[in-house]
Specification:
Number of domains: 5
Radius of gyration: 34 Å
Largest sheet: 8 strands, antiparallel
Helix content: 55-70%
Oligomer: single chain
Distance between the termini: 61 Å
Shape: globular
Strand order of the largest sheet: 8-9-11-10-14-15-13-12
Length: 937
């Protein structure tokens, strides 16, 4: 029998090629025959295989022919998808069609050429099934190929050989195959033990082989495994979802995982699994007839599904591999592939990500509706609140409890009073009940009732403020109001920031979610849950502030984002209109407007200026004017930073804000003379004498008289003690180093004492950069006898203090660099590359000179893209211009850094000459540009 005859003659009881397998689907993105012509390819393949060829030759020829067809088919799909960038469903079906063809033809080669069995025994039956996402027929360009090889009894040597040959061909085709070989009994046993296996088999699809075996599996699964276990399956899938969200991030993160993240494809698939398991339906549209979904809800869900699948397919094609993380660099490329453009002062990527988060929210809404319908049939357990408190709380007139959720008794009566659209959220907070999806639908469908007269209604204003101030968990009401569109309807100015992405590495959340997170943190402080972590903010709130002002200011502080104007100034203009509509008095409105306009002031002063300089505190105190504003601004600043995302708040920022607050409070209450530099110097010297009890009078006199006044003002007494010991009996060419953790600041303090010379700051910065340390703050001082004392606060590349075990190596690297054993400039080159995911950001460079912010220094502020080696490049440039650097304050915001240098010229004067300032700015920009070119590769 020739190979061609073998190809057309299927073994008895097998599904013959040319029947179901060869039927061309019509829902592909290009004609099926152009993507993968199965009959024609089969004929070509078997015609090319020589009679009597060995297995290696057959495999090689098979891989070549199928590989060519695979590549051609994928290219056709990708080209068609490029022209139809939202055609996700047809694209996933097309990749499935290609994979089906590869699997079927590989099976035919393995069973008819490599291991033929014209008359197989009963035990030599084999069925190949697609399972998981492949079984569902949804494949992204580089999705895994999950296969189940099904046998009637224990696997035979023949079946083992067939499977092995198929896998070798798949691997040579570069397919990522997940496979298992089981009997029907194995499937039932393992599915009973493991819900992941059960879920994969739920979506099995017969591909080729012994069809009756596949039918038997399907029948047994539904009869012996799935039936009666619906509730257990739903609970297992929900637990799995919650664990996944906990791992990926409960909120909508700005670098989402399209597959596993909240509102992503895995959540969509969980819905399909649950619907199929419970309702025995492959199509969610059937749930419209069952009354679970309304037609417009189903349509919104379908749009979200198409969008998310399109994003995933573009992600795979952009990376040339399986990639599920929508990282910053891929967001730009996917946005371009999907046809987004810059407009309205915002980048294309920001519009794209706003759509992404809106669709992810829609997935959450659909999930909530389905789960509530399952509660109604007791297929899903009640919410945790109801499990703890068995008896449902008593609700006010007009409401009822349905399946442990707050429902509306009569829709028409409810809608007669538009204020009920706010009251329902208050009732939900009061009772602790979740709102029933039917009530949510009613609210969403009648948002037009929230008009201007309602917004100006006194009772509506009070209701809204009560949601913020009265019930103790305002973030819960705000989040649900935001998801349903009520927040944007009641405050139309809030609408533009809903789901708005902040395209930077600093913010972890969308603007609306960041706002809600800030209010959550304020509520937590009010409840006394953060007294140890936030003693100042906790004390302020305990002593009493205007809560109405604070909550409204926090709600509105970022409302001006997303436009070309400064968001603080625009936000203040918006707050001037919104605050009166929320029922605040004129004085309260003025304070809210001031807080919104200046909500970054305290953070900037603390992180971008030297708060040891009396002028910094004096200027800040003049801007704040009163302790009431200082208190409000301090709490708002703390909540704003903590609301950026996990890990943003740390002891370093806490220490800076705490010091600025206490010094400013002292100045406002006791007068500006409390900031006098000489008074502070006298006190610092007194403390030093106490901390050095073993020193002689002469030694103490020498130490307290060798330093200029800024030294005593600029360092904590603990650093004075360290430097006193380093300088004691120091030799002319000696370098002394002390490195110890500064636990109060989440950093490691590195103190240096050595003979002073030009460019000392740059040399030290270079040495630390070479050692992989990030400088977060620095001070340098020159003593009257010619020694330099420098204190650097550093963190490791992950933003943490150095562990004790790593400090000796750090010290050794610094010492080698300072002694000239390592040339800093050359050694830095391999280290200053910007990571790929950061390259998409556009960070313009701004350089400013400030002669008013300090009494004795010019402040040079450089705002630019962060990268390794930047501080070294900047300080080296200043040193080459004969500029003396007294201190540097480094504030990092994701990919952006603001370095503020307190400097003098070579004569010890401020930089008054504009010509000189322009020259310095030019040199700094050249250094930044050269470094950026190196970093960008």
């Amino acid at each position: 029998m020739t190979l061609r005859q073998t190809a057309s003659a299927a073994p008895a009881s097998e599904a013959a090629p040319g029947q179901t397998e060869d039927r061309m689907p019509d829902d592909l993105i290009a004609p099926a025959s152009s993507i993968f012509d199965l009959p024609a390819l089969r004929e070509r393949l078997f015609a090319a295989l020589p009679d009597g060829a060995d297995e290696a030759t057959v495999r090689k020829l098979t891989v070549r022919i199928l590989g060519e067809a695979q590549t051609a088919g994928r290219e056709i799909i990708a080209a068609a998808f490029e022209k139809e960038p939202f055609g996700a469903r047809r694209t996933t079906r097309s990749y499935t069609w290609v994979t089906d063809g590869l699997v079927r033809l590989t099976f035919e080669v393995a069973t008819k050429v490599l291991h033929p069995r014209p008359n197989p025994t009963e035990g030599e039956r084999l069925a190949v099934l697609a399972v998981g996402g492949y079984g569902r027929g949804e494949m992204a360009p580089f999705s895994d190929v999950d296969l189940l090889f099904l046998t009637p009894y224990k696997i035979t040597p023949w079946a083992e050989s067939v499977i092995e040959s198929m896998l070798y061909i798949f691997w040579d085709l570069k397919l990522k195959v997940g496979h298992s070989s089981r009997t029907v009994k194995d499937c039932l046993r393992l599915g009973a033990e493991d819900y992941t296996i059960r879920t994969a088999m739920l979506e099995h699809r017969f591909l080729i082989g012994h069809a009756p075996l596949a039918k038997d599996l399907s029948r047994r699964l539904w009869k012996d495994l799935f039936a009666g276990s619906e509730r257990d399956f739903v609970e297992a899938k929900l637990e799995e979802r919650d664990a996944r969200h906990m791992k990926q991030g409960q909120r909508y993160m700005v670098e989402p995982n399209v597959k596993e993240g909240k509102g992503g494809l895995r959540d969509l698939q969980s819905l399909y699994w649950i619907v199929k398991y419970v309702h025995h339906a492959d199509d969610l549209s059937k749930l419209i007839d069952k009354g679970v979904f309304l037609p417009d809800e189903y349509e919104a869900f379908c749009k979200a599904e198409r969008f998310l699948w399109a994003v995933r397919c573009h992600l795979h094609l952009a990376a040339g591999r399986a990639n599920e993380l929508l990282s910053f660099d891929t967001q730009v490329e996917v946005a371009a592939r999907m046809g987004y453009n810059d407009r309205g002062g915002r980048r294309a990527v920001e519009w794209f990500m706003q759509d992404y988060f809106r669709h992810a929210t829609q997935v959450g809404d659909t999930t909530r509706i389905l789960l509530t319908s399952l509660e109604a049939t007791h297929t899903k357990g009640a919410p945790i609140f109801q499990r703890i408190f068995k008896r449902a709380p008593k609700v006010k007139d007009g409401y009822k409890v349905v399946h442990n959720r707050l429902a509306i008794e009569a829709d028409k009566t409810f809608l007669k009073d538009p204020l009920n659209l706010l009251r329902v959220f208050e009732e939900a907070l009061r009772t602790g009940l979740l709102i029933h999806p039917d009530a949510m639908r009613l609210i969403k469908d009648n948002l037009d009732l929230i008009d201007q007269p309602m917004r100006e209604n006194r009772e509506a204003q009070k209701l809204f403020l009560d949601l913020l101030l009265k019930h103790g968990n305002p973030e819960r009401a705000l989040r649900r109001m935001n998801e349903l569109g009520v927040l944007a309807a009641f405050i139309p100015e809030f609408a533009p920031i809903v789901a708005m992405m902040q395209y930077n590495m600093y913010h972890h959340y969308t603007v609306d979610e960041h706002t809600i997170q800030c209010i959550l943190h304020l509520s937590e402080i009010e409840h006394g849950n953060l007294v140890e972590e936030l003693p100042v903010a906790s004390t302020i709130l305990k002593s009493g502030v205007n809560r109405r002002v604070l909550y409204v200011a926090l709600l509105l502080h970022d409302i001006g984002k997303g436009r070309d104007e400064d968001h603080s100034i625009l936000g203040a203009i918006i707050a001037r209109k919104v605050a009166p509509r929320l029922g605040l008095s004129k004085k309260e409105c003025d304070t809210v407007e001031w807080l919104v306009r200046h909500h970054l002031l305290m953070s900037d002063m603390a992180q971008k200026r030297d708060i040891a300089d009396p002028r910094t505190v004096r200027d800040f105190a003049k801007a704040v004017k009163s302790k009431e504003r200082l208190d409000l601004l301090c709490v708002l600043t703390v909540c704003d930073i903590r609301g950026v995302g996990p890990g943003t708040w740390n002891n370093w920022k806490a220490a800076l804000l705490r010091a600025l607050y206490r010094q400013t409070k002292r100045a406002l209450e006791g007068g500006m003379e409390d900031l006098n530099r000489e008074m502070r110097g006298t006190e610092a010297k007194r403390i030093l004498r106490e901390k050095l009890p073993g020193w002689s009078g002469a030694e103490l006199k020498n130490e307290t008289s060798r330093h200029y006044p800024p030294y005593w003002q600029g360092l904590h007494y603990t650093a004075h003690v360290v430097f006193a010991n380093l300088l004691k009996d120091i030799g002319e060419n000696e370098i002394r180093i002390d490195i110890h953790p500064d636990e109060d600041r989440d950093a490691t303090r590195a103190c240096f004492a050595l003979q002073d010379h030009p460019g000392i700051f740059s040399r030290l910065a270079g040495a630390l950069a070479l050692a992989g340390a990030n400088v977060v703050d620095a001070r340098t001082f020159t003593s009257k006898d010619g020694f330099a004392t420098a204190a650097f606060w550093i963190q490791d590349p992950d933003g943490h203090p150095y562990e004790d075990t790593r400090i000796p190596r750090l010290r050794d690297m610094i010492r080698k660099t300072l002694k000239g054993e390592v040339v800093t400039r050359d050694a830095m080159k391999p280290k200053d590359k910007v990571k790929k995911r950061e390259k998409a950001f556009k960070v313009p460079t701004h350089i400013t000179f400030d002669n008013e912010g300090s009494e004795i220094f010019t402040i040079i502020e450089v705002d630019t893209r962060d990268r390794p080696g930047l501080l070294f490049d900047l300080t080296r440039t200043l040193a080459n211009q004969n500029i003396y650097i007294a201190s540097a304050v480094i504030a990092t915001y994701g990919e952006q850094v603001v370095d503020a240098f307190y400097v003098k010229d070579m004569f010890g004067l401020k930089l008054h000459s504009k010509v000189k300032r322009d020259q310095i700015e030019k040199k700094l920009r050249e250094a930044i540009d050269r470094g950026s070119e190196r970093a960008q590769g």
